[in-house]
Specification:
By secondary structure, this protein is an alpha+beta fold. It has 12 helices and 10 strands. It has 2 domains: 14-91, PH-domain like, CATH 2.30.29; 118-362, no CATH class. 52% of the residues lie in helices and 13% in strands.
């Protein structure tokens, strides 16, 4: 007597649509439900899917769409017969095993929050530390190339020609050299110049480039005022603040962009976040440059107070709301004036420029208005 088969009897074939995952052709097939699901196409070799491998796939209402972990990734079975769908669901005990549970969602949210906190911590602590360590290690040729590129942009904005009056240039060179010697900056590639623009400012660029704008020179009343400003900019060069800023800004842009991705509206969040963290970083650099300027002026036997008085005359009192103070990239001018007033000392060194040299410097760009 033959053994009785324990295999479930095959069910009548029922029509459905099958995509084999190899081609995009729709195939009308029939199914047989035995010990495994058989997908049968006319004149074709049956395809067997074991029930344990079958998983539910996203589908529109009224359609049961299935995939199999043992089939090609794009293989799909679409069943529109409700009775057949119900019968097949009953046999597929692991149909929804891949669906994310509430516990799984909680884990995803938890790990996402942990990743976000990690990125924020890296932005606030890791990137500044890396910038501090890496900035002095940037090779001089690379730093000069970055400075040259920045210089092109600066001259496009403020004027391509540097003021070249011989007497004024000689006085300016003398002043810069005295400051540079006192600062211990022995880089022979360092350059400085005056740009003919009415904007009252001064700045340093990577690669040892310092520029004074004529608008600031016009408002100055004595050499010590300009010397203190230039000493401040030399402080930025001494501390590699430009390179630190480039590394820091590049790092924060990448990490904050990684955190928010391309979600609609994230650009505004990124801009706001970077504004706050960059402002704090700039205030630290500016305060350190002020300290450097105070030390240099003391070495030369001159007071740092005139530089702060010049800034105060230009900007006036800047005290404002708490939010304004948070977003300020520089210490408030009245705070700087108060600090440098505390550091004020009677002059113990010779004048940095003679009266004649000072007048020549004032006329370095000519006597006309810019």
């Amino acid at each position: 007597m033959s053994e009785l088969s324990t295999e479930a009897p095959a069910q009548p074939a029922k029509p459905t649509i099958f995509f084999d995952g190899v081609s995009s052709r729709r195939r009308q097939v029939t199914l047989a439900l035995g010990d495994a699901l058989e997908i049968i196409e006319d004149d074709g070799t049956p395809v067997r899917w074991t029930y344990a491998d079958i998983r539910r796939a996203d589908s529109p209402a009224g359609v049961l769409r299935l995939a199999s972990t043992s089939a090609p990734p794009l293989a799909r079975l679409e069943i529109r017969d409700a009775a057949l769908a119900a019968e097949l669901i009953a046999r597929c005990t692991r149909l929804d095993e891949h669906q994310t549970s509430r516990r799984g969602i909680a884990k995803i949210v938890g790990w996402s929050m942990a990743a976000a906190v990690s990125i924020v911590c890296v932005v606030l602590f890791g990137v500044p530390l890396a910038a501090d360590r890496l900035a002095p290690l940037v090779p001089k040729p690379i730093e000069r190339r970055i400075g040259d590129a920045s210089e092109v942009q600066v001259k496009t904005i403020f004027g391509r020609n540097v003021c070249e009056d011989p007497a004024g240039k000689a006085a300016f060179t003398k002043l810069v050299n005295r400051l540079r010697d006192a600062a211990g900056l022995d880089d022979d590639s360092m350059t400085a110049g005056v740009l003919p623009t009415a904007v009252p400012n001064a700045f340093a660029l990577p690669g040892g480039k310092v520029y004074l704008l004529k608008g600031l020179l016009d408002k100055a009343e004595n050499p010590d005022e300009i010397a203190g400003i230039l000493a401040h900019e030399l402080g930025h060069l001494k501390h590699y603040d430009n390179m630190r800023g480039l590394i820091y800004n590049g790092g924060t842009s990448f990490l904050i962009g990684l955190l928010f991705g391309d979600v609609t509206g994230s650009s505004a969040v990124i801009f706001a976040s970077r504004s706050v963290v960059e402002a704090s970083y700039s205030r630290e650099a500016e305060t350190a440059a002020d300290t450097f300027a105070i030390e240099i002026m003391h070495k030369l036997g001159r007071s740092p107070k005139p530089a702060a008085e010049l800034m105060f005359r230009i900007t006036g009192k800047e005290g404002g709301s708490g939010l304004t103070n948070i977003l300020a990239s520089h210490p408030l001018t009245e705070d700087r004036l108060a600090r440098m007033t505390r550091e004020d000392r009677p002059a113990s060194g010779p004048p940095l420029l003679t009266a004649k040299e000072w007048q020549s410097l004032k006329l370095i760009c000519g006597s006309g208005k810019v």
